[in-house]
Amino acid sequence: MPEVDARTRPVTPAPADADLPIVGECTLAAVFQRRVERSPRREAYREFDTATNAWRSIAWQAAGARVRRFAQALDVAGVERGARIAVLLPNGFDAVCADQGALARACVPVPMHALDNPASIAYILADSQAALLFAATDTQWHAIAAEGVALPQLRSVVVQRCEAAADDAAGPAVLLLDEWLAAGDASAPVPAGEPAGPQDLAAIVYTSGTTGKPKGVMLTHANVVANVEGVLGRVVPRGDDLLLSFLPLSHTFERTAGYYLPIAVGCCVAFARSTALLPQDMLAVRPTVLVSVPRIYERVHAQMLARVVGSAWRAAALRLAIAVGWRRFQRAQRAVPTGGAGELLDDLLWPLLDKVAGAPLRAGFGGRLRLAVSGGAALSTTIARCFLGLGVPIVQGYGMTETAPVVAANALDDNDPATVGRALANVEVRIGELQELQVRGASVMRGYLNRPEDTARAFVDGWLRTGDQAAIEGGRIRILGRIKEIIVTATGEKIAPADVELAILDDALFEQAFVFGEGRPFIACIVVLGDAPWRALARSLELDPAAAGSLRNPAAVDAALRRIGELTRAFPRYGQPRKVALTLAPWTPENSLMTPTLKLKRHNLEAHFADTIAALYAR
User: Fold this and answer.
1) Given a cut of 50, is residue 2 above it in pLDDT?
2) What is the per-residue pLDDT across 241-253, written as a single tens digit (0 to 9) for each?
3) Residue 212 CB neighbours (<10 A)
4) Of the candidates 65, 41, 44, 89, the residue with the CA atom closest to the CA atom of residue 181
5) What are 460-478's pLDDT values in tens digits?
6) How far apart are alpha carbons 107 and 105 in whole angstroms?
7) Total domains, the chain
């Protein structure tokens, strides 16, 4: 792979316009090509090389050369304009090149989550009529093929590495990536066809979905370019920023905010090795920009609270640091009056409090973070205030796959964490029936692939129905909950489960929470306990934390329920869980209990815990 060592990057001056964001281009391929031309020697990507056990750096010029190799190989493979190119690769430089190579030839990338189950992948390949599949291994492909789904359009499968013996079974040819690229290099150049236009598809992104089959959202080049330019008016990375990417590139939030936006501004993207190794990669890469979902911030918050368990003075110092830091943040935002003895006292206390609580938190993110973005789901106001108070500059936004995806966002200098900020300049919003937030603008999708009826239902009078209830106050959007996720109990009371779950997660004891009660006489929940807080609680109750029966012990259950009662006391009585079940087994995308962006799959959780739920209501 063409590369340059990160420690010895060329320092040849870049063109005068290298630091300017690229705007005004009509397609994503044009944006990428312009970036390569503007800043050829700057670092574009960084990823970990397991062969050398070190991070390696790729300059924009080298990235452009590698993308041309992918495009040439697609030409030689006879892939036609508009063909669907499925990309089932982990985040990394190859995934970028597969995507950009397809865009360069006016093909349509179909990004898929590398950890999705074979049945779901087979469905997407069939529904999109993919002509070529990029996968990590041949073993992965064999598992997909074993589902028995007819894939008549799929001509070849290109894999990064082979793990199994040669397979002579009928079906598409399985080719090693290096050999596939070499065949393209050795062939005479094929004249490039007509380039993509702004109304051509730039991707078919399948919604991960909390229920049912995923839908293929058709996004055009114009949709995505408009969204990138809209985001640039609100949250602007710099050319010298370093972004750590770990959310799956199959998700539109990461594709726009963590992939296309950095191309437009010319900053470097480092690909994390895995979510499990994210803490180590934070320290190694020391990013200045982080794009994440709330679950990651919730984990960091829980770990921070767990470290002060058992130490009254440390817990008190943390609470004081958050309170003082939050007041300082509000003054900086001009949300409260400045001046007075209170401000002077806060300024005097802050250096010591920051040393005790703020600096260690920021150090865990690498110590250089100047922008942390949260999206994909609601971020707890408690966690946002904690992070902002301790100097982690977190901004929350809102969007959906169907809007490419950003609709609204806070800005560093206009930041109200209780809201998702203001609509982007090129996006219109309104409140429709049932307090539904509705959206109109250039970034709104063309529709759902092969689903004209679903597409028609998604719009009303030309406005996209988001399915989210919201209020618009002083230009800021406050999300109230999902219309479809509102629980209606047997007594007719309505409650938004996500709000209750967020409240429960403010306690470090609870790492995950699932609230339910549709058609039931009361609300109940199942919670995943943090390991260290659970051990501390179990010991205080004279229970063996390693014994499975301890999680069902009435003393442990009652203690957890009392804490949940305190956390949800602001809710109406009918919105407070009356019963709880405890577990230590986390819910993950791998066990199909969460989406790739770490949202709860509620129907899957209901099925998985069917016996537990039945027992809670039988008592």
Assistant:
1) no
2) 999 999 999 999 9
3) 8
4) 65
5) 999 999 999 999 999 999 9
6) 5
7) 3
Nearest to 512 by CA among 534, 543, 484, 535: 534
Report the b/e string of 423-451 with b at 16+ CB within 10 A. Answer: bbeebebeeeeeebbbbbbbbbbbbbbeb
- Token code pair at residue 509: 């004891």
DSSP state of 287: -
The maximal CA–CA distance of the chain, rounded, in angstroms, is 80
* 520 and 477 assigned to the same domain: no
Cα 433 to Cα 368, 407, 423, 458, distances in angstroms: 44, 19, 19, 14
What confidence category does residue 483 fall into, taking pLDDT thresholds of 50, 70 and 90?
confident
The contacts of residue 83 (CB under 8 Å, 6+ apart) are 107, 108, 131, 132
Q: How far is CA 238 from CA 244, 265, 268, 296, 567, in A?
A: 14, 6, 10, 24, 40
* CATH classification of the domain holding 606: 3.30.300.30
pLDDT range class, residue 210, cuts 50, 70, 90: very low
d(CA 605, CA 52): 41
Query: Is residue 161 in a domain?
Result: yes
319 and 464 together in one domain: yes
Burial label for 243, CB within 10 Å (0-12, 13-18, 19+), is buried
Domain end (from 419, 448, 482)? 482
The total number of residues shown for the chain amounts to 619
CATH code: domain of residue 10 = 3.40.50.980
Calculate the alpha carbon distances from 187 to 63, 167, 238, 254, 565 in Å.
Answer: 21, 26, 40, 35, 69
Per-residue pLDDT tens over the stretch 553-608: 999 999 999 999 999 998 888 899 999 999 999 999 888 899 877 889 998 999 99
Do 220 and 74 share a domain, yes or no?
A: yes
Nearest partner of 579 among 608, 601, 609, 602, judged by Cα = 609
The answer, yes or no, to whether residue 125 has pLDDT greater than 80, is yes
**All residues at 6 or more sequence positions from 306 whose CB lies less than 8 Å from its CB, including other chains:** 508, 530, 532, 533
Outline where 462-553 has alpha helix (H). Answer: 497-504, 531-540
> Of 488, 485, 494, which Cα lies nearest the Cα of 466?
485
* 415 φ/ψ angles, rounded to the nearest 5 degrees: -125, 110
293-334 pLDDT, tens digit each: 888 998 899 889 888 888 899 999 999 999 999 999 999 999
- Structure tokens, 457: 């239902």
Cα–Cα distance, 151 to 130 (Å, whole number): 8
On whether both 417 and 319 belong to a single domain, the answer is yes
Residue pair 213/137 in contact by the 8 Å Cβ criterion: no
Is residue 75 within 8 A of residue 162, CB to CB? The reply is: no
**Phi, psi torsion values for 256, nearest 5 degrees:** -80, -55
Q: How far apart are CA 216 and CA 207, in angstroms?
A: 7
Query: Are 439 and 537 in the same domain?
Result: no
Q: Is the pLDDT of residue 169 over 80?
A: no
Contact between 209 and 215 (Cβ < 8 Å) = yes
What's the CA dihedral at 67, 69, 73, 79 to 10 degrees?
30
Q: Which two tokens stand for residue 315?
A: 């817990």
Question: Residue 139 corresponds to which tokens in the numbers above?
Answer: 């073993």
Can you give the residue range of the structural domain that contains 443?
Answer: 293-482
Q: What global pTM score does this model have?
A: 0.84
Beta bridge partners of 161: 137
Least confident stretch, 62-71, 89-98, 110-119, 579-588: 110-119
